[in-house]
What we know:
about 220 residues, alpha+beta, Protein Transport Mog1p, Chain A, 2 domains, 11 strands
Amino acid sequence: MSSSGARAGASPISAEVGPEVRLLVALPEGAREVTEAPAVNVGGLPGVSVVLRKGFRVADAGSLGIGCVRGPSDKWAPGVEELVFARATSIAKGSLGVSLERLDARPIRSENRVIEQRLSGEGTTGAGGSLVEMRHLLVFAGEAREGVLCSVACVEARGASLKCSELVSSASFQGSLMEPPPPSLLVRLILASAERPLHAGALVLVLGIAAVAIVLVRRPRPRPL
């Protein structure tokens, strides 16, 4: 299964970002790839790796940046996407090269196994006013249902014909996408502790006692003298 295809610009970029999954993004006419794309810092996130990092520029019109990371989904639970997208927005804002005046986020939505959020704003660069369009897309791929997060950000000079809105909208996935994994026991306990702290606390205590019992049972008994 794949999401809607690229719709705008020149020949789209196609890159493998997960197990049997590719990201497609349309490029603007006259786009030139920059040799030094902005860095994506995923330090402190165990198992997470950068799988795509590209930047393109159109003279006197603006720029387009694409970044994707991939990692385990064992900490996944409904609602975590808000934290994931907030972190992605923070990283993307630092690589725009724009002094932002505003950046408005639309509600997160899920369709065809793609969880996404769109953001729009404006700011200024050394050349003048600019419009900003950003989009985060989160999917799960492969038997392990690894998480793949891609962010596409476009900066368009006021009065230019770059059509950032269409370029960002063109981002799509091609391949087999999976349903989000069910929350692990640990994540369910954390969520339960927020909703029903007394019940969750009792369950944690029971699990702790059980773990101690298992250790004691497995501990070798001393041999008789």
